[in-house]
């Protein structure tokens, strides 16, 4: 089978789409609205493809399939495509592949090596840092991602053994930042409170930390962060990206539309020019924050205690509605 980055002219009747969701003959994905066979489903697309590798009926799914495709580029996409095309080469590396896919898609600090691998893979599409960046100017997006996939698929499985030395400049600095944030949060740089009834983690931080680092330090997939600014109290809420995917083993709280909470908070702000604004639930990391018209966070007039009480009341009521 041959990899082809998904495009409008692809022969869908002979194509297996892995990780993304598009019209095709066979779909292996953990995205919403996927068509993955029930017995193959898993938390990442990489694990789904590895499940297919040991499925005694795999030949039926591969029948008449000529192309493996994806509609985007990331670590889970790359590794699931490789596992679909070269299942017997991929299987001996199963645990590492899954940990790397989880690091990429969920932002989890699974293992140091898996996180570094994800940083290397992710850098390949960066127009400033990619080893392939000299070619990007003359390519459209489809050609660009075809080149990236072909290059990295061609380097596997050797890439699993040599990425730390071969592409040191692509992971060293980014990993150091993540490790520093991880260490700081583990050593009291933020106060974290967990509210199981609302499925909410609350972080009071003295400075900004990467969102994935914040989530890794917390228990829940709903995170409210308070940060003191020179102008006052900055506040933002996020749903974890894991709540967007269809997963099999992960305990998750549902995404709940925060529109009623937005209305309540804005009424309490009492006429300020800035507003509480909430992204669509379809966003990967839906955000609720007090922002200006450009989307930059601005201080709220409300106290930390009042804001927290509104979030707790909203989620606790949503989890346990009164009939």
In short:
This protein is α/β, with parallel strands linked by helices and 323 residues long.
Structural overview:
The chain is globular. It has 13 helices and 10 strands. The chain has 2 domains: 2-179, no CATH class; 189-319, Diaminopimelate Epimerase, Chain A, domain 1, CATH 3.10.310. The protein has helices at 45-53, 58-62, 75-85, 87-90, 94-106, 112-123, 133-136, 141-155, 158-166, 168-186, 211-216, 259-269, 304-319, and strands spanning 2-5, 15-18, 26-28, 67-70, 190-195, 200-205, 222-229, 232-239, 275-278, 287-291. The protein has a 6-stranded mixed sheet with strand order 5-6-7-8-10-9, with helices on both faces. A 4-stranded parallel sheet has the order 1-4-2-3. The longest helix is centred in the middle third of the chain and has 19 residues, at 168-186. Helix content is 41%, strand content 16%. A hairpin with a 2-residue loop joins strand 7 and strand 8. Helix 1 runs parallel beside helix 3 (75-85), helix 3 runs antiparallel to helix 5 and helix 5 (94-106) crosses helix 6. The protein is an alpha/beta fold and 323 residues long.
